[in-house]
């Protein structure tokens, strides 16, 4: 056997996506939630985002989270059906994929590129995302509420690297993980662990003349890394 053949083949890269603002078309479920709850839209929005951190970290239940959002709208009591309705509206909003992001997922899937999701999200959203038609192309999803740790905490990236290592015969190679996220602190935390992380300007935000949308940054980075997307 030649020396060349004995050398370990370079590990196939894994492409890891954040969800909100990267795969989702938008990042503002407040109008949809406000349409259900009524009350003051500003107060609903403030409660929805203020309470979201604990919900995404798995520290509060759907009843506690949606109860707090509803109280901000002046709704004191929610039935189990109403809690489900609010959660469904939130899931539906976020599960609307950006068409260009969806096209990228299709291209990667067609080329058998390993894909994973790393999302700060509730367990309820984790359940919904795994039922999405496109999720079949993903090898796994790391959902913050299920792991009780959120980006940019180091622990959630360790979980990601550990589960990916399990998929690749125990070899842990952060540099073979290409990660896209719309929050700079999440990108920096990933880079600190050696992950090949890149900022994806949030879908739905305006792209001033001359700036590159996230999907074209991703396509350029992937091409540079030799990841097929044709
Ligand atoms: Mg995001």
From TrEMBL:
* Name recorded for this polypeptide: HAD family phosphatase
SUPFAM superfamilies, alphabetized: HAD-like
Specify one Pfam family: Hydrolase
Q: Which Gene3D superfamilies match?
A: HAD superfamily/HAD-like, Putative phosphatase, domain 2
* Tree of life domain: Bacteria
């Amino acid at each position: 056997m030649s020396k060349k053949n004995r050398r370990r083949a370079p590990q196939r890269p894994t492409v890891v996506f954040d969800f909100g603002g990267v795969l989702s078309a938008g990042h503002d479920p407040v109008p949809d939630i406000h349409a259900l709850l009524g009350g003051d839209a500003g107060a609903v929005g403030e409660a929805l985002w203020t309470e979201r951190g604990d919900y995404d970290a798995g520290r509060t239940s759907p009843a506690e989270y949606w109860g707090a959002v509803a109280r901000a709208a002046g709704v004191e009591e929610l039935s189990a059906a109403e809690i489900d309705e609010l959660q469904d509206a939130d899931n539906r909003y976020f599960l609307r994929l950006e068409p260009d992001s969806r096209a990228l997922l299709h291209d990667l899937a067609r080329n058998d590129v390993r894909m994973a999701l790393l999302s700060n999200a509730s367990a309820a959203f984790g359940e919904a995302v795994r039922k999405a038609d496109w999720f079949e192309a993903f090898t796994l999803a790391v959902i913050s509420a299920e792991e009780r740790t959120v980006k940019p905490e180091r622990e959630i990236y360790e979980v990601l690297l550990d589960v990916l290592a399990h998929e690749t015969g125990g070899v842990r190679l952060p540099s073979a993980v290409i990660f896209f996220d719309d929050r700079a602190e999440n990108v920096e935390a990933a880079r600190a662990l050696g992950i090949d992380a890149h900022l994806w300007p949030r879908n739905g935000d305006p792209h001033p003349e001359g700036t590159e949308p996230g999907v074209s940054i991703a396509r350029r980075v992937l091409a540079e890394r030799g990841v097929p997307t044709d």
